[in-house]
Amino acid sequence: MLKLESNNLFLSSNEIGSFLTKICEKGIPFKFTAKGTSMSPFICDGDSLIIEPFIKDINPEIGDVVAFISPEDGHLIIHRVIKKQDRQYLLKGDNVYSCDGYCGKNNLHGYVKEVIIMGKDLLVLTLFIRRFFQFLSNFKKIIAFFSRYKLLTPCCRLINRLMRQADINRVI
Fold first, then answer.
1. Which pLDDT band holds residue 168 (cuts at 50, 70, 90)?
2. How far is 51 from 129, CA to CA, in rounded Å?
3. Which phi-psi region, left, alpha or beta, contains residue 4 (left: φ > 0; alpha: ψ -120 to 50)?
4. What is the pLDDT of residue 12?
5. Phi, psi (deg, nearest 5) at residue 51
6. 91/110 Cα distance (integer angstroms)
7. Greatest CA span in the chain, whole angstroms?
8. CA separation for the pair 108, 100 (Å, rounded)
């Protein structure tokens, strides 16, 4: 459902995937608002993401956070490359236990170049944690290793629980 409101274009998940594919084919960066928690606390619901298209000679590396279209339902998914095998990439969200499976580079449309932390009135503690995780993103191969062996997910869930609890305590 396409909707235009105060210079913002609202698209369904399938529409945004189709739109991203066409934009990236032209080599144009794409900015949109993340939905979901599969990459939290690295990327949280409501953060703005800038997707940079892959140039033909550039291949994703282990640890890159990439944009791809799910072959099952056509939805746009932003997850991390945790393993390369031949010309296939194993993808997984940091905050989920299951992998998305392998996909080829032709299914990967770009990588997350920048995460803009959004959210009004974030607690100082929450903002500190989010900035710390942004810093950790510089160590993407280590993060991918922990994610691949399902060691990262429990840590992400604990951090997310702590951030939610801090928000609840602030309201009470």
1. low
2. 23
3. beta
4. 66
5. -100, 125
6. 13
7. 53
8. 13
Q: Give CA–CA dist 160/107, Å, rounded.
A: 30
Residue 89 phi, psi dihedral angles, 5° rounding: -125, 130
pLDDT digits (tens, 9 = 90+) for 91-149: 999 999 999 999 888 888 899 999 998 765 667 777 888 888 888 888 999 999 999 99
Pairing status of strand 76-85 against strand 8-10: unpaired
What type of residue sits at position 37?
A: T
pLDDT in tens, 49-66: 999 998 777 889 999 999
For residue 45, give both structure tokens. Answer: 């619901």
Residues comprising the chain, all counted: 172
Cα four-point dihedral sign 159, 164, 170, 172? negative
Rounded to 5 degrees, what angle do the CA atoms 85, 88, 93 make? 95
Helix orientation angle between 152-171 and 124-136, rounded to the nearest 10 degrees = 160
The C-alpha atoms of residue 154 and residue 125 are separated, in whole angstroms, by 20
Beta carbons within 8 Å of 154's beta carbon, 6+ residues apart: none
Provide the whole-model pTM: 0.84
